[in-house]
Inverse folding.
């Protein structure tokens, strides 16, 4: 339709241009009163043709504009990619696999899950930022990937504001896990052992990367108990948990998933404490870290959401938001995610999601100021 309108407009322009040239050209070579009258006629004809030309151009623009708008509103026109900033097999991957199907059903296209670990999620984040802001990529993440690394790691070049939250997904409890043969049964035992080994062989711990929430919380524990703890950053949850099960690190703090209890039963590692007062049924048997007086103000959970690159058109954000809101109400997804110890988000508007993300950025900026973490 747009092509045909442009073709017609081109013909009108050629015709009017030719008429102007022919009429004006006839005035040359004449003289006297006739020549003067002809020139006046030529100018009137030119003005008339100019008005006709701009009128045609205006009407064509009005006809073309709705067609362009319809083309822009056609989202998605093909498969879209859900970027997960960790390797397959971890808690983030579980969320992605649970929701990609319902989101795709609502959008009417396939949602491809792409796992890309490394650098606390910044490699995956940069790939999304390198793409056009057209909804072809959307990012599954937390403060661990989009807020804390840019604020704590000088090597990270992007800013939290370069992403916009589309819809929250889940909230997860954090747990303190220790290797199976670490000689501790309580938080008091853990503190005592950390102090005893401070000058000889400090306890080692793994996290998903420098500047992650898990890294900062553990560094705060180190300062609180006045004992050094050696950090080993990993490319994701799965490899860190593998090394914990294999005894290569002494402990870790991670977002809880049901598989952790299964691994505990198999004797691979142990859950020592939960880092929040409110606990789901599946974690009721474990103490909260804040029950110990020295950690009374330790209250940490982690929330995940879906994000797009800032500058993505509003109609795309709204469509993605509706698809995600549909997915978090899917009975199958809710059963799977809540059975894994997570709290699934209620439907939110794009404005609510954006406001919550900006508030989260401010909260972590304040935490960094309090802890004095300066990055690397």
């Amino acid at each position: 339709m747009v092509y045909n309108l442009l073709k017609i407009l081109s013909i009108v322009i050629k015709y009017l241009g030719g008429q102007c040239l022919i009429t004006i050209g006839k005035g040359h070579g004449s003289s006297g009163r006739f020549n003067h009258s002809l020139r006046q006629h030529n100018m009137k004809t030119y003005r008339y043709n100019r008005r006709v030309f701009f009128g045609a151009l205006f009407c064509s623009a009005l006809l073309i504009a709705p067609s362009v708008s319809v083309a822009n509103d056609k989202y998605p026109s093909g498969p879209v990619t859900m970027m997960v900033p960790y390797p397959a097999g971890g808690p983030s991957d579980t969320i992605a696999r649970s929701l990609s199907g319902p989101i795709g059903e609502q959008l009417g296209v396939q949602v491809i899950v792409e796992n890309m670990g490394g650098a606390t999620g910044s490699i995956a984040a940069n790939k999304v930022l390198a793409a056009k802001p057209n909804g072809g990529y959307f990012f599954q993440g937390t403060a661990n990937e989009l807020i804390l690394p840019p604020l704590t790691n000088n090597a990270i070049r992007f800013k939290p504001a370069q992403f916009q939250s589309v819809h929250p997904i889940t909230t997860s409890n954090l747990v303190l896990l220790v290797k199976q043969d670490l000689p501790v049964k309580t938080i008091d035992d853990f503190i005592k052992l950390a102090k005893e080994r401070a000058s000889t062989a400090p306890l080692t711990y793994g996290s998903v990367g420098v500047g992650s929430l898990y890294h900062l919380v553990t560094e705060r524990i180190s300062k609180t108990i006045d004992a050094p703890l050696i950090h080993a950053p990993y490319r994701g949850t799965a490899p860190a948990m593998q090394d914990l099960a294999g005894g290569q690190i002494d402990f870790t703090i991670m977002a809880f998933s049901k598989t952790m209890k299964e691994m505990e039963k198999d004797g691979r590692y142990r859950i020592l404490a939960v880092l929040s007062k409110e606990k789901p049924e599946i974690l009721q048997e474990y103490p909260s870290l804040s029950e110990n007086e020295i950690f009374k103000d330790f209250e940490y959970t982690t929330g995940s959401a879906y994000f797009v690159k800032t500058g993505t058109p509003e109609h795309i954000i709204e469509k993605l938001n509706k698809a995600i809101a549909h997915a978090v109400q899917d009975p199958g997804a809710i059963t799977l995610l809540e059975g894994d110890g997570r709290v699934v988000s209620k439907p939110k508007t794009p404005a609510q999601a954006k406001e919550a993300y900006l508030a989260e950025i401010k909260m972590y900026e304040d935490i960094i100021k309090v802890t004095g973490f300066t990055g690397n």
